[in-house]
Amino acid sequence: MDTFFCSDNSREVGEEIIGTATNNQTYILVECPQPWMSEAFNSKWVPSNLKLLVEEAKQARLPIKFLLIANDITHKSNRTTLLIYQRKEGLGSGYCKQEFSLSNIEQVAPTIRKWLWGGIPNFAVEASKSRDILICSHGSHDRCCARYGNPLYFHGNQLISELKLDDIRIWRTTHFGGHRFAPTCMDLPEGRYYGRLDIDSFQSILTRTGDVSCLNQVYRGWGILPNEIQILERELISYYGWDWFQYKVAGRIIEVSADKNHILAELTFEKPDGSMYCHQAQLVKDDAKTVELQSSCNTTKKSSSSQYAIAKLYPVSEPVFAAKIIEHQAVKSKIA
Question: What is the C-alpha to C-alpha distance for residues 35 and 207, in angstroms, rounded to an integer?
Fold first, then answer.
C-alpha cells in the first residue's frame, strides 16, 4: 500500500490555500535542539519548568502560540535564543519583536514569566529589523513537513547565502498549522503564511521581486486578518503589487448574513506617505471550492474545507470616511 501524504492529496483535490493563515496574538519561539517529539514540548531537551509554563498558559487560554525553533548551529551554540513576537494593535504591519540571548534553555521559562507579568527581563538584545523565516520541518507531527520542509530549509539557506540577504534568518520550527500545504512557512515580524513553496516562489517572497501573481498559488494569508478577509487582501496584492507589503493595514467584518453565505468585509490601509484608503468587498461562500479531504497524514477522517469568493469589490477613495457610509449602505441592501 502506498504511503499517504496529505499535502499531495490537498493538491490533487484542488484545495484552495488562501484563507488558512492562523490568527495569533503572540508567538513565543524557543531555540531547542532536535529531535522533537510529536508533542513538541515533550521533547528531550525541553526542561520541566518550560513544559509546565506552556501547560499553564494553555489551561489559562492565553493567546500565545509556543514554538520550538532550531538552525544548523543550534546544537553547537552555547546560547539559547528566545523570540517574543506580539501583535501590534490597530492599523499596523504585523508584530513587535523582543529578542533574548540566554545562557541555557532552563532560563527560558523564568524569562517568559517575568515578561508575562510586565517586567523587563534580563538578557534582552537590541531588536533588529531582521526577518525570521520559519519553515515547518516537524516530521514527527506530520510526515509531509519532513518530506517537503527539510529540503526547503536546506535550499533556502543556500539561497539566502548566495543572495547575501543578511537581514533574514531562517529557522526550522515545530508545527504551526497547515501541514497539508507543506512545505509551509511563516514570515515574521509581518506574520504572513505561505505554503506549497518551491525555490522560485520562495526567492520572490524573500526579495519581493518577480511576478507577484506567484502568490496566487502559495499565499495562505496574513495572520493579523480574519480568515474570511484574507482572500480580499490577496486580491489587493494582485492590484497594488509588491508595494502592498509596505502598507499598514487593518481589516474587519462589517456584517454577516444569517446563513453565513454572504459577508461584507473591509480593508483600510495607509501608504508610506500617510495617505489612507479603504476597500470593501462582498464575499460569497463558493460551494464549487468546497472539498472533502484528510487534514493530515495521521488521520483517515475526512473534513470539509469551504471557501469564500469575491462577488464584488467596492473601491473607496480618499477621503476614506466621507465615502464609506454611502458604500456601506449600498452593499448592505445587496446582502439583505
Answer: 31
Query: Which tens digit of pLDDT belongs to each residue from 19-56?
Result: 999 999 999 999 999 999 889 899 999 999 999 999 99
Whole-angstrom Cα distance, residue 73 to residue 71?
6
- Give yes or no: residues 42 and 105 share one domain: yes
The CA-CA-CA angle for residues 129, 132, 137, to 5°, reads 175
The whole-angstrom distance between residue 242's C-alpha and the CA centroid of its chain comes to 18
Grid-cell match 514569566, residue found: 113
CA 236-240-241 angle, 5° bins = 105
What are phi and psi for residue 31, nearest 5 degrees?
-70, 125
* Residue 1 located in a structural domain: no
Q: Which range of residues forms the domain containing residue 193?
A: 6-217
Per the confidence metrics, is the pTM higher than 0.85? yes
3-state secondary structure of 328: helix
C-alpha cell read off for 4: 499517504
Closest CA to 185 of 126, 210, 26, 176: 176
- Last residue within a domain, chosen from 151, 184, 217: 217
| pLDDT, tens digit, 9 for 90 and up, residues 177-203 | 877 888 999 999 999 999 999 999 999
Apex 104 CA angle, 102 and 108, nearest 5: 65
52 belongs to a structural domain: yes
User: Residue 236 and residue 314: Cα distance in Å, rounded?
Assistant: 12
- For residue range 215-271, list pLDDT tens digits in order: 999 999 999 999 989 999 999 999 999 999 999 999 999 999 998 889 999 999 999
- Is 286 buried (19+), middle (13-18) or exposed (0-12) by CB count in 10 A? middle
Per the structure block, which three cell numbers stand in for 45?
531537551
3-state helix, strand, coil split of the chain in percent (to 5) is 35, 30, 35
Residues 187 and 290 in one domain: no
